[in-house]
Amino acid sequence: MKITPNRTLPEYLYHWEKNTPNEIYLRQPFGDTFHDFTWKETGDQVRRIATYLKSLDLPPKSNIGLVSKNCAEWIIADLAIMVSGHVSVPFYPTLTAVQINQVLVHSECKYLFVGKLDDWSSMKEGIPGEVKCIAFPVYNPDPSHIQWLDILKTNEPMLEDFIPELDDLMTIIYTSGTTGNPKGVMIKFSSSPFVLYNTRDFTHLEITGARFFSYLPLCHIAERNIVEAGSLVSGGTVYFADTLETFNSNLQNASPTHFLAVPRIWTKFQLGILSKLPEKKLGILLKIPIVKELIKKKIRKGLGLDDAIITLTGAAPMPASLIKWFARFDIIIQDAYGMTENVGAVCMMPREKFTEGAVGKIYPGMEVKIDTDNGEILTRSSWNMIGYFKEPQMTAETIDKDGWIHTGDVGEVDNNQILSITGRVKEMYKTSKGEYVAPAQIEFHFADNNLIEQICVVGQSLPQPIALVVLSELAQRHDKAYLIQNLTESLKEINPTLKSYERIKKIVIMNEPWNVENNMLTPTFKIKRNIIEKTFAAKFENWYEAKEEILFL
Known about the structure:
The longest helix has 17 residues, at about 40-55. Helices cover about 35% and strands about 20% of the residues. Among the domains are: about 10-185, Rossmann fold; about 350-425, Luciferase, Domain 3 (Luciferase, domain 3), CATH 2.30.38; about 430-550, 2-Layer Sandwich (GMP Synthetase, Chain A, domain 3), CATH 3.30.300.30. It is globular, with a radius of gyration of 24 Å. β25, α17 and β26 form a beta-alpha-beta unit. The strands form 6 sheets. It has a 9-stranded mixed sheet with strand order 12-13-14-15-16-21-20-18-17. Strands 4-3-5-6-7 form a 5-stranded parallel sheet, with helices on both faces. The chain has a 4-stranded mixed sheet with strand order 2-1-11-10, with helices on both faces. By secondary structure, it is α/β, with parallel strands linked by helices.
């Protein structure tokens, strides 16, 4: 089916529902078995849920919430909200009670779909009393909720093919919030068609037999674009991950044609391979012509990426060395860059030409310019967000009078329209010597060290920066002496490449990992720099004055 710039996501559902009713759209694993949803069954459930939502007599275009880990019902609920004439407002399934309360109150949702969650009992405390909850089947047995299966039994499928206006509000996506409270990004129905049309030469969504593997949060713009929108456009099949323990087997079963992973996942893939086949032995085997192809195929198949025609990374910088490492097995990882405010679609690295240190070639229809005052990346396109929900002042600060979105990222564009990111405007700080430091750019220099899982460079009020480090799983296999030697060598290699005031004085090894649960990471695994700095700020000076160059806590 050809992608056009004026066909909304519900219209793709109607097309496949009518033309390929018995093809499988959604595959939900339960252990070793699948519950399959054909396009016909998906459409039937979407229409029955939509009938129910319309029966509630809510004002047109009401905001309806959705909180769940990825599953078939997530996509069905999202589509049902759209075709009932309302606005979908998805939330991260890892939110605390306080966080879910904040976004529910701010978004004015009166109904909330509740699905697959790790700790609903804790989150439940944050649900405002006036919000009515609708429970997904299987995952949420709360008897006080309106039950999904009861809705399906008591409501007839909506007969009309409701087609939204392109300028209507489709969804409000709350950002993962690296700083401050999450902001509700308002996105129109026209944004997805415009993005899909202008990126069609990059994404290969017009193929037959597309398969997608859904495990990154569907409430995030990247997964929403690639998995939900991509599957609707292509008529492909979406496979879901069941649990963390079954992730590898679920991915192998899916064998996706389109796959997205953040750098942290790619690193874990690498460490998994090296745990079975050490680098030295791997290097020897790859030099033997007969063995080389067998090794490459075995690794691709073992990961579940043997059929992948596009493998993507995003959300954080990807080390060039890691991209080159996977390329040895014909796994060509392409960087992609965007933010919720521009629907995640600014640029993608061309598969055929990798530019080291860059994030991609700017898409057709996307304008990018660099602010001459501070180097900030500005973007403008037909798929810009409308603004932030109920936040006119924040909207005015982000979108200027000429329609340019101020991304907060600092970067450069070359003559071939290749974009590079060099830091964040707000993350730059001044040392006690009065020099400005961009920590993200320094952190990227350590990306090739596979003993380092996470890093946060800090140093405001210090003469020189220090690096807070969480060690990787690979590091746990080595003794302290080896770790000190390795990290000392990294400093000796990296510091001479930095400006004198950027050079790292100390590496401080954290004794606990940073994760979503302790609020050090966002749900998309970006470090919350302000939280980390606030947590450890009182210790910076003592760490700086310690005699050791590599300091273990």
